[in-house]
């Protein structure tokens, strides 16, 4: 495992029981001269519980989610933690009412529920208007520092980790300054790796994270969906006695928002209140941003009103968030009205306000309205379009595939004396290439030469990508050579675009060869490059070569996504190589890839298709061992395989286990269970099981499926007994089920039973199919049952249906 736990018993005890080993957690008064977050001792001790009071919240939230704290044990609320750095007093962890557990954001949050930000009612109405934003800017030279680069190199070797490498990393860590630690965290392509390094470093002897490291770690996690990691970092800050500013909570709030957990994101405000920290303008703006991103515009507007009531005055960022929210729900008129009202609210709109609306209009190709908005911006706000304005419009239109309109603004900008740079031109070229308009793209490139705005690597790469999209791979190769002639060196993106073109044109082996000699051409493949070649080989059926690419990818420290893993696993299973698929998945787990339940389910399905049920069940156990929870699809796959083998009792056990675990049966689950039980004729057992399944998740057509499936197996008597369950509601689906039963009776030569089904339909105000009833009537007549035949036809006449023959002909049927 990456960054193994230090084996020294004293250190392990100190970490797991910090309240007993406070001396291990001494924090120097000044680390490397960095003074970022610390305040005076008196201010910190004024709120002794403010730093660790939300331990109880996070502990309760963890227990409700069923998650295990991977790196730190939760403290008991009755124990005392000695804040050695800030005084000799003891701080007791305060408890407070448990906050509602994890919600799923959209599904668990009501637009009319303002309970999430009732905390605003209780704060000081004379709140400081300053946002209090503390931006952490790491100098570029820190990223190029030899120590930083060496540590990043060692982290990249995590797949071959050993005690020697860990010792080297530990020695380098003690020489790092806090900004350099931050640079290491921000240099990681995978945020999960950054988080693991953060935890590993925090466990090392005679090393302690500077407060700025915590804030940088939170900032890194706020750009991902790793909300649980952000929560744990914030919780660790509380344990370490580090002052938590609203910015720290804002980062956690954004992480929850990105994970789709709006309710938890808004609960951060309550956590702040319990910690004794009052919200400021920054955290309020973050809350509005989170609500807008979740399409909760009405709630964001109510939040704004609550802000004003407590004395927090919104600023330009607040209003720009709301303008974006209006545009997201296509209320552009309301956005324009807000822009018009902003000067009266003491906050004049800026160009970003107008650019937001222009972006929405550009997306819908409403060019005339964009031009009108520019005039309005000049007239009402005295904001005149400049080069930035035109560059923004060109980029917006190009991004949404409106290259022709972008060219119009390019010409207009040049007429007004503005010089659009190569970035704007490259955006237009890229848009043309994505549309397959290569000639128009080449025209713009030629214009760049005449204007003295030479194309760069980005421009050439866009053309290479466009040529590959239209199948002109050889022309794309020549374009790479032209880059060298004009003094530009193709980069990884350029070669990846070419490799993608080769793979899509059935030349994956050639792409693989180009990647093998990448060092000779002085470029380095990245994760996307490997992914492109892997998919190309997979599509051509070269699974062995594709597997080799993934292995090389893992050795280089790149992780395939669960989707990519699943595609290769599925391809192996399709060819019957389920054992290879299992081995491949196990290797991905060994290397630390994000293998998920879908990947396990795909392999399980492969073994079930090969009738190897025991191996499939073994893999189900492995899922639990790897903390991958099976879903309804996994259980359905197992249930179907067991039913197919006649092991119906075991299939029933797994169905009940799925229900006990709170998983809702899917439509496929219903079809699978019904098919297997009807196949062996165990209708009574099926009905008992269906009642339990329906109590968990309703299925309108469950009994319809049972009747139709019994008919397909020729068990008409059992199907007829269940007919009353579908005739309770007169719907077209029920009518179709009755027709299936009627046709089954006819095929068995029992028209009288088919007639009785039709009569029951009439009694429930369901009109049977006329042509089908004609067949029944003719069969009844042939068997001498003319009274039933005439009665069936008269039922149609009574309901106003016109028969293909007159009523006087009924006796002749």
From TrEMBL:
Keywords: Repeat. SUPFAM superfamilies: Ankyrin repeat (SSF48403). The keyword Repeat applies. The keyword Repeat applies. InterPro entries: Ankyrin_rpt-contain_sf (IPR036770), Mito_RNA_Proc_CCM1 (IPR051114), PPR_rpt (IPR002885), TPR-like_helical_dom_sf (IPR011990), TPR_mt (IPR057027). PPR repeats lie at residues 245-279, 280-314, 315-349, 386-420, 421-455, 456-490, 491-525, 526-560, 596-630, 631-665, 666-696. Residues 227-305 form the Pentatricopeptide repeat-containing protein-mitochondrial domain. Pfam families: PPR, PPR_1, PPR_2, TPR_24. Belongs to the PPR family. P subfamily. PANTHER family: MITOCHONDRIAL GROUP I INTRON SPLICING FACTOR CCM1-RELATED, PENTATRICOPEPTIDE REPEAT-CONTAINING PROTEIN PET309, MITOCHONDRIAL. This is Pentatricopeptide repeat-containing protein-mitochondrial domain-containing protein. It comes from Hevea brasiliensis (Para rubber tree).
């Amino acid at each position: 495992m990456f960054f193994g736990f230090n084996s020294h018993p004293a250190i392990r005890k100190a970490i797991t029981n910090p309240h007993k080993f406070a001396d291990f957690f001494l924090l120097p008064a000044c680390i490397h001269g960095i003074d970022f977050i610390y305040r005076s001792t008196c201010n910190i001790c004024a709120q002794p519980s403010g730093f660790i009071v939300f331990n109880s919240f996070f502990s309760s939230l963890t227990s409700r989610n069923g998650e295990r704290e991977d790196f730190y044990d939760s403290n008991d609320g009755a124990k005392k933690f000695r804040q050695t750095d800030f005084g000799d007093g003891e701080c007791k962890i305060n408890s407070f009412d448990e906050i509602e557990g994890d919600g799923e954001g959209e599904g668990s949050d009501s637009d009319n529920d303002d309970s999430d930000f009732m905390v605003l009612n209780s704060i000081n109405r004379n709140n400081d208007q300053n946002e209090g934003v503390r931006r952490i800017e790491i100098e570029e030279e820190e990223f190029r520092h030899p120590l930083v680069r060496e540590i990043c190199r060692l982290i990249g070797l995590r797949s071959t980790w050993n005690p020697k490498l860990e010792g080297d990393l530990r020695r380098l860590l003690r020489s790092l300054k806090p900004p350099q630690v931050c640079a290491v965290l921000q240099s990681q392509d995978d945020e999960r790796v950054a988080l693991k390094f953060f935890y590993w470093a925090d466990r090392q002897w005679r090393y302690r994270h500077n407060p700025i490291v915590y804030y940088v770690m939170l900032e890194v996690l706020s750009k991902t969906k790793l909300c649980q990691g952000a929560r744990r970092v914030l919780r660790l800050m509380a344990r370490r006695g580090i002052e938590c500013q609203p910015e720290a909570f804002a980062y956690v709030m954004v992480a929850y928002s990105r994970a789709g957990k709006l309710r938890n994101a808004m609960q951060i405000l309550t956590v702040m209140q319990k910690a004794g920290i009052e919200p400021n303008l920054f955290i309020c703006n973050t809350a509005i941003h989170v609500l807008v991103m979740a399409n909760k515009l009405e709630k964001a507007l109510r939040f704004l009103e609550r802000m004003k009531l407590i004395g927090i005055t919104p600023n330009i960022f607040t209003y720009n968030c709301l303008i974006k929210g209006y545009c997201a729900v296509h209320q552009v008129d309301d956005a324009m009205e807000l822009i018009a009202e902003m000067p009266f609210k003491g906050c004049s709109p800026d160009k970003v306000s107008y650019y937001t609306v222009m972006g929405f209009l550009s997306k819908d190709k409403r060019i005339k309205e964009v031009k009108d908005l520019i005039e309005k911006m000049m007239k009402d706000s005295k904001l005149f379009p400049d080069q930035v304005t035109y560059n923004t419009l060109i980029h917006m239109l190009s991004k949404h595939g409106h290259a022709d309109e972008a060219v119009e603004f390019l010409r207009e900008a040049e007429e007004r004396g503005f010089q659009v740079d190569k970035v704007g031109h490259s955006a237009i070229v890229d848009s043309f290439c994505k549309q397959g308009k290569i000639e128009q793209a080449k025209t713009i490139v030629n214009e760049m030469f005449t204007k003295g705005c030479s194309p760069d690597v980005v421009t050439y790469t866009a053309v290479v990508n466009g040529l590959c999209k239209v199948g002109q791979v050889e022309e794309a190769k020549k374009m790479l050579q032209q880059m060298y002639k004009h003094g530009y060196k193709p980069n990884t993106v350029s070669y990846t675009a070419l490799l993608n073109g080769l793979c899509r044109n059935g030349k994956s082996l050639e792409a693989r060869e180009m990647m093998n000699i990448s060092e000779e051409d002085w470029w380095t493949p990245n994760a996307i490059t490997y992914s492109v070649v892997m998919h190309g080989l997979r599509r051509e059926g070269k699974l062995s070569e594709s597997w080799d690419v993934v292995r090389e990818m893992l050795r280089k420290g790149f992780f395939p996504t669960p989707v990519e893993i699943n595609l290769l696993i599925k391809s192996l299973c399709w060819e019957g190589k389920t054992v290879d698929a299992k081995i491949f998945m196990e290797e991905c787990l060994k290397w630390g890839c994000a293998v998920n339940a879908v990947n396990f389910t795909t392999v399980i399905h492969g073994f079930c298709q090969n009738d190897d049920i025991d191996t499939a069940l073994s893999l189900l156990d492995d899922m639990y061992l790897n903390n991958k929870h099976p879903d309804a699809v996994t259980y359905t796959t197992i249930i179907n395989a067991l039913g197919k083998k006649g092991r119906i009792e075991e299939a029933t056990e797994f169905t009940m286990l799925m229900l006990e675990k709170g998983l809702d049966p899917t439509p496929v689950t219903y079809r699978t269970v019904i098919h297997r039980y009807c196949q062996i004729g165990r209708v009574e057992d099926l009905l008992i099981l269906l009642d339990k399944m329906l109590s968990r998740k309703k299925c309108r057509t469950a009994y319809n499926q049972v009747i139709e499936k019994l008919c397909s197996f020729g068990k008409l008597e059992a199907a007829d007994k269940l007919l009353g369950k579908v005739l309770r509601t007169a719907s077209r689906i029920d009518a179709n089920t009755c027709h299936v039963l009627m046709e089954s009776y006819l095929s068995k030569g029992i028209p009288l039973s088919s007639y009785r089904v039709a009569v029951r339909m009439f009694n429930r105000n369901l009109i049977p199919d006329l042509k089908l009833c004609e067949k029944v009537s003719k069969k009844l007549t042939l068997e001498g049952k003319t009274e039933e035949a005439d009665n069936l036809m008269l039922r149609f006449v009574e309901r106003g249906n016109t028969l293909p023959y007159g009523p006087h002909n009924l006796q002749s049927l």
